[in-house]
Amino acid sequence: MASILIKDIVLAEQNVTRPTDIFVEDGHIISLSNVEDGRVADIVIDGAGSTAFAGFVDIHIHGAVGVDINEGDAESMFRVAAFLANNGVTSWVPTLVPDSDENYRRVIGEIERLMQIQAGKPVAQAVGVHYEGVFANEKMCGALRPEYFRRFADSGSIGLPTLKSGVHVTTLAPEADGGIDLIKQLVSDGWTPLIGHTRADIATLDAAFAAGARHLTHFFNAMTGVHHRDVGVAGWALTNDEVTFDIIADGIHVEPRMLKMAVDSKRPDNVSLISDSVAPTGLGDGSFELWGETVSVVNGRTRNERGSIAGSVITMLDAFHQMSQLGYSAHDLSIMTSLNPARTIGIDGMVGSIEVGMCADIVLIDDSGSVMQTIVRGVPTDN
Q1: What b/e string do you get for 168-195 counting C-beta neighbours within 10 Å, with b at 16 or more?
Q2: Which residue range forms the structural domain that includes residue 228?
Q3: Which of 16, 53, 275, 310 has the least C-beta neighbours within 10 A?
Q4: What average pLDDT does this structure show over 14-29?
Q5: For the chain, what is the mean pLDDT?
Q6: What's the pLDDT tens digit per position in 313-327?
Q7: How many Å apart are CA 95 and CA 291, to the nearest integer?
């Protein structure tokens, strides 16, 4: 594997403007220094005028470039991964909507194949699987298909196909039958349980927190909001310092002023950005078949036949730009796009920050906000 020297780059997460050199070898960051140390690299990248961010980590993404993860195979998901890398994403968690056991088993097999063919390639690396809304509240289903919803039987088995390796995440409603026992089982089995598609009351949310579910999926969306006489799921999260959440920063799922209010209230240290993108992402406006119905995209807004928003058509780079326009610093953007999502799924010891010893997952963004170069596990893309 080629060694890389990135010269005269500003590091976003350190909030300093003095240029630094980053030396990468064997896929890892070997040194960070603003002093010439005589290292010779196979590849030299001039970073002048750009800022280095840790590669974006998208923990909630259903597809892009015409590919729906529920219907995809390894080769089509590889195309998604290439698209993501060109938009600054270096790690992602393919996310499934409720579906049949048969199709779940098929897709898990395809994600396994993807993990084999992606190794050493400059594409966003799939690091696991996210099952969204399998155990959800039907009254908060959003664009999900309630005919595939399940209830936990407390049999000692979650009942969902698993990968041989990688993270396993699921978004659930804790008030669903057996929900608290399910959370306990998920934690025991090494899964990351997230709260979403829910109308849970405060007592149930507190029980879910005690059981190990401490992060909310797409904040404000598919959950009860804040009222002055009813704190709601959103209010519970905002008033519990130990709860974190992710949010869709497309300006559609959450109005920008509400987006800023939520992030300021929670502080960027406790917020992750997600895309929640669906198959039409990257294809522009039009009509598309998705999850058994027609979804229209008009001016970047999705709408299914039931009138619900059906995911987004943004990338993490778009979310980055939205938050930048709202005034967040490079440091804040770095932790919301990379460190926090990596921490949420437990891979922050490997990715999520630019530090010596970490995987060399780096995105260079120029002064115009464009991706100049993405480096995935020490392998540069062709940006």
Answers
A1: bbbbbbbbbebbbebbbbbeeeebbbbb
A2: 55-346
A3: 16
A4: 88
A5: 93
A6: 999 999 999 999 999
A7: 13
